[in-house]
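sry for the spam today, last one i promise. struct tokens for design, 263 residues
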């Protein structure tokens, strides 16, 4: 008698192997050609990469936004592994320079940890930020990630605790160094005149999707994408374009919500 033994589910990180297909779909998409997208009109946008990633991870999105007419600025990050407060301070300085140079508030697009940084910046400096878009960002708990991702954070934290420079440490979790950052991230009092769109995917192989759901967001959009693929997925690009166009009128922007039902 044959006994059928069900195969165990694939590890969540394997879902990230679809990123090539997602990028190929972007090249074929009318979104990539700017069809249906509002012009950027030289409005400033800062792009912040995720954990263990650098500016190059958002290079394709940067190219697309420039093609629409946005004035983009990179975060100047090679690998996003430094102390959260240090990263925030560095990004705040960039925001100040961009706002001074352009004479207007800046929109932020942040992927993964970059979106976590973006949320904290919006709370700390609403005078500099017109709106934020977070892509697969665990804004409701930085440790709302898959086990393999938590392991990588642990290794980086251990090295930082051993005084390897420019790495986060275990003190960042509860210590004084990131106290201001944690306070800004965890508050429910998000600025009313700062736009906030968060994007998540149930197929995310890096971050637990429920950790991306923020009641403070004015728009919460579900896409069918891998985590890394959010930097290439056409549905994400359409959402980013729509959100940035809305941020142009942040001072009188109505609250609009596209909450998906979270099981």
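last one done:
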């Amino acid at each position: 008698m044959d006994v059928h033994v069900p195969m165990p589910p694939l590890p969540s990180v394997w879902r990230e192997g679809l990123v090539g297909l997602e990028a190929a779909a972007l090249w074929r998409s009318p979104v990539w050609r700017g069809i249906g997208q509002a012009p950027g009109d030289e409005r400033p946008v800062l792009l912040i990469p995720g954990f263990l990633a650098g500016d190059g991870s958002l290079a394709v999105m940067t190219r697309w936004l420039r093609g629409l007419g946005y004035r983009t600025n990179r975060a100047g990050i090679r690998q996003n592994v430094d102390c959260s407060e240090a990263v925030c301070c560095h990004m705040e300085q960039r925001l100040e320079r961009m706002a001074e140079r352009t004479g207007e508030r800046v929109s932020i697009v942040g992927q993964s940890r970059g979106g976590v940084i973006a949320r904290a910046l919006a709370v700390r400096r609403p005078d500099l930020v017109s709106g934020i878009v977070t892509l697969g960002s665990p804004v409701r708990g930085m440790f709302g990630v898959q086990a393999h991702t938590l392991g990588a954070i642990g290794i980086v934290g251990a090295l930082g605790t051993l005084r390897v420079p420019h790495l986060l440490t275990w003190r960042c979790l509860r210590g004084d160094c990131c106290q201001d950052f944690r306070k800004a991230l965890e508050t429910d009092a998000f600025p009313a005149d700062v736009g906030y769109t968060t994007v998540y995917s149930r197929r995310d192989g890096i971050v637990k999707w429920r950790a991306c759901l923020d009641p403070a967001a004015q728009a919460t959009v579900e896409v069918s994408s891998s985590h890394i693929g959010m930097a290439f997925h056409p549905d994400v690009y359409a959402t980013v374009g729509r959100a940035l166009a809305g941020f142009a009128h942040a001072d009188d922007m109505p609250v609009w919500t596209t909450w998906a039902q979270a099981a």
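The chain is about 35% helix and 10% strand. ok im logging off now
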